[in-house]
């Protein structure tokens, strides 16, 4: 029986491990090579609603995919759908976004100012307008994977919540025939309020889940290989494949990545209100991004 002390030691060891070693389990998009049952994404587009979304919610994703982009294994681009002009600071926030993306290392980026997609705390955006805006980027860049908010928008912001509906509208309009592999949508999972503010502790929780999943996958493969010796006509050995092929896509930052995310948020000087200092100190999204695929 595992003692409570051992569990505590394991938990804090994983937390300390995050200081030195980031971890990503993202074979559902951005694998280096195609393995059995994998669908490989090569051209990925992150879509956000406002300047500072990239720092507050998607930094672990951006930093992990930028590293793969630098190795030429994928292309990674970012599109922001507004200047964030709710308080008349649109031009200022546009410049702040540029500085933030410089810190995060994103060179392929665009920010647009559309009359029907203005920063608004109470109004949702039209899905068809979002789809029309996304379409030329998807086709010109040969995008096969879109990353964005889920239908809860992480912070329940109506602009955030509108984007996945727009992306799904585009996928339906394209009919799955305009890209190979077909265009897919992955959304950042909105966590419950207590879990949302677990900060670095979320690293330990998610790493434990990943290690358990990988262990179960290896055990499953071993059992099937052993049974196939006696029952070759019923069971055949599984071909080698990525152990995370069917796992939830997840990016986990280390301390250096978290530090970079903080620096990128500091670029948004106009948004550095007291509650955002609390957010960057306690939010799990500064450390962990977990996605789910959404299909039409």
TrEMBL record:
Enzyme Commission identifier(s): 3.5.1.89
Keyword Cytoplasm: no
Gene3D superfamilies: LmbE-like
GO biological process, one term: GPI anchor biosynthetic process
Organism domain of life: Eukaryota
UniProt-recorded Gene Ontology molecular function terms: N-acetylglucosaminylphosphatidylinositol deacetylase activity
Keyword annotations from UniProtKB, A to Z: Signal
InterPro entries in the record: GlcNAc_PI_deacetylase-related, LmbE-like_dom_sf
Signal peptide boundaries: 1-20
One Gene Ontology cellular component: membrane
UniProt record similarity statement: Belongs to the PIGL family.
Protein name: N-acetylglucosaminylphosphatidylinositol deacetylase
